Structure formats: C-alpha cells, structure tokens
Amino acid sequence: MNVLFTFRIKDEQMEKLKADFPGIQFCFNKKADEIAIDEFEIIVTYGEDITTDVLERATSLKWLMVASAGVEKMPLAEIAAKGIVISNVRGIHKTPMAETALAHILSLGRALPALVEQQKRKEWNTKVRQTELRGSTALILGPGAIGSEIGRLLQAFGVRTIGCNHSGNPAGFMDDTIRFDGLLSRLPEADIVISVLPSTEKTKGLLTEEHFKAMKETALFMNFGRGDLVKETVIVDALKNGDIGHAVLDVFEKEPLPVESELWTLSNVTISPHVSSHSGKYIERALEFFTENLEKWQNGDKDLVNLIDPEKGY
Q1: Homologous superfamily in CATH for domain 2-92+280-298
Q2: Element (H, E) at 145
Q3: Where is the D-isomer specific 2-hydroxyacid dehydrogenase catalytic domain (predicted)?
Q4: What is the pTM of this model?
Q5: What's the pLDDT tens digit per position in 233-265?
Q6: What architecture is the 94-271 domain classified under in CATH?
Q7: Which of 62, 103, 139, 156 fits a disulfide with 190 by CB distance 3.0 to 4.6 angstroms?
C-alpha cells in the first residue's frame, strides 16, 4: 500500500508514521501535479491540488484524505464517479475558531480596540461604552462541531444560544435549535449572529438584505464560515445604514479581500484574513484523524471517521 502526502509535515511526524505503519510505503512532500501518482492508493492533501487531471493520472487511488474541513473546491462529481472514498478533518477547527470568536466578542464588548486607540493618543477617557455578555443571546448558524464549541464557551458566560441548521434537529450546547426557514423570525432576538456554515447549495446567499434589517441595530455579525453566505454589498449597506452595529469578517466573497473593497474603510467592521482556524497544533490534530482512519483502512474497514458524501459536498 502506497501513501502520498502532498503537503509538508515535520520530520518526527514522518518517522512516527513509518514506525507505526511499517507495511506501508510513504511518499512525503510531493505535489500531485509534479510526480507520477498512478501507484498511490491513498493521497493525503489539503484538497486544492486535486484536479480532474490528477484524478485521471491517479489510477490506483481509492481514498482521498483531505486535511481540511472544506472540500467545495475539489472536483467532487469526478470523485463520486470514480468511487473514490473521501474523508476530511471536520471538527479540527473547533478549538481555535471558538477561541477566536470569543476573543472578538470579548474584545469588542469590553471596548479593547477603543482603549488601544486612546492609548495611542495618550488620552485618559473613562467614558468608554462597555457591555457584558451575561444575559445576551447568540444565534449560531451551523451548530456542528465548531458552532457547538462556540456555544459551550458562550453558555459559560451566561449567554443564551440559538442554533440554526437545515434540519432543525437539536444540537450540542444550544438552548434552542431552528431551521433555516425560521431564521428571519428569530434574528430580532439575537445580540450576536455567528456563522460557521460551510459552502453548499443550501448556504450560498442564505443571508440577504432582509435578514440584516431584521437584526438589532446593535447586533454583532460574525462570519467565520464561507464568504458566499452573503454578498459583500449587503454587508456594506447594513454597516453604513446602521442596520447592525459591527461586523467581524474572517471570510469574503473574493479572497484576498481586494484593496478597493469598501469594507477596508468602514469603522464598524473588523477584517481578519481568513485566519480564525489557524493553530500551531493543526497538523498534529490532522494526523490523529489520518492515523485512526489508516488503521481502519488496513483492516478493511471503509467506515472512516468524517466520511464525505461528494454529491452533497459534506
């Protein structure tokens, strides 16, 4: 059995894999479009390097292990047609992304950006508007692994949490869970609206101008999921018109965010360059998913952790 890693891992991680799986031939740090890949049964990848051309050349490929949560940029139809098993690392981002969300919420609530600006001006001003989290309400779009972890942290601060998903099925650390089609009626309750939704046919353009007008004028809108959830012009208008109080954006319709984007110039938006999931422990956690699944694969068990349905995209 041959395994190809198309991204770099540490030397000690390579050696551990070789020691733990002596019957497997590993090839590390080679790009899929630069080598002959017809011999590899398994490819471990971030996903974006898997093209239709790569799939045509990977004649022995049976399993794609994607060390990312999003797979929307991959040729999923071709993967499905070839019967290739695909799994990802869903849930790997929950700790750093939940901590990032909480950091922004606390920072804005306790007016830390304003205090930093006062310090730059050497200004002593005690009349800074600050709020408490306790008693507020957060509406979380996508209460899966990441959203539930955000909910857990917020509940510890006394926040009421409402989850919103396609099914309306109960989710962890949500006081209530609603369906997408019930979102509009519940938005007026929310002090904080957080999206960690993936990009699917059901989530693209899910939020419209009507949704932002339904939010509180003081609401904090946060998007850590995918930029195609809402058009940039809708967010810009909502911020300029005072439909919401502030936005924290980690993802955008077009990335990198173009320098001419009006978002850069607005005072009530915090721009983050798609880094909410970054962590020094990322590869370590990804390899935990991989080794668990590799043991299953060796034993003929194809019921892998985090299997992806390529037709659904998740």
Answers
A1: NAD(P)-binding Rossmann-like Domain (3.40.50.720)
A2: helix 145-156
A3: 4-299
A4: 0.86
A5: 999 999 999 999 999 999 999 999 999 999 999
A6: 3-Layer(aba) Sandwich (3.40)
A7: 139
